[in-house]
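Practice problem: predict the structure.
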Amino acid sequence: MATATKSQNRQDEKAQPTFACRHRRLQIAVWQNDSSNGTFFTASMQRSYKDGEEWRRSQATLNRDDLLVTAKLLNWAHSAVTTA
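Answer:
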């Protein structure tokens, strides 16, 4: 009788984010990645929008060092459009 190894079990399971959050049409998911150099995290952001009758998603992937800078840029953009 054959038995599955831990790595085979992990490949069979659907990968789940370490953290996920949604607000209206925006979603963010944080993923833990293991490599030979250690553990690192990436975040993927999605925005859902309707194109005619079809729902679509645009996506961006960010590294850990990009998160705070992205937040600041989005904050500045929000300030610019709300004070215009």
